[in-house]
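Morning!

This is the sequence you dropped in the shared folder:
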Amino acid sequence: MGAGGILIFFISFYLLKKAFATTGTASATAPPMARDRERDNDIVTLSKIQVALLATATEVQEQLSQISLSADTETEEGLWELLRETLLVLNRNEEHWTHGFSSSEKVKIQDAETKFDRWCFEERSRFSGESLVNANGKVRSQENGSVQNRAEGMYIVVTLLLGTANDRPLFEDVHSVTDVKNALATLSGLRRDYLMTFYLLWTPQQAPESLDYDEMLSEYPFMYQLV
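The structure's back. Tokens below.
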């Protein structure tokens, strides 16, 4: 596996829960009492969505690198903007999608941090190294000397990990292009004050490197071929 890019933004679920109890704007579709019951209860939702794209989507890696380098990872506004820009990159490259996977589940807030950290560790462990990291406002990058110019038809895998204040799953399993589009649309419709934590990962980090079919299946055997 080639080196991956990763952008990390994490704030304690407990601290965010306290902040959400006293801040936020009214929803246009739900009264304040209904809004507060979901946002301030002891349930959060952890979601993962992964999309494999053909490496013919030559601008994806560069675009993800650019938005990650420019993201303000120390503010909620910067986190929200990063998510929106990531969703735009994926949607603009729909014709290159080949495989997908998703998971979304509600968990008790006292268990959320441990489970989310486990997800992050599992995903980062798939990389042989991390050539670009933006965490807590600090950027670390290193040249990947193993970049290879591989043939067309290989793959890039983009992973989004989110923790949100929703008290129910955001989407079901994805098996088709339409399923992925619907899941991304759900994420784009999230309220900004519901976004609690977000990891963006992609591998390989830079073009023209890509994963061959065996590499992708070895590290992401659970992904479905989209129909």
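Headline: The chain is about 35% helix and 25% strand.

More detail when I'm at my desk.
O.
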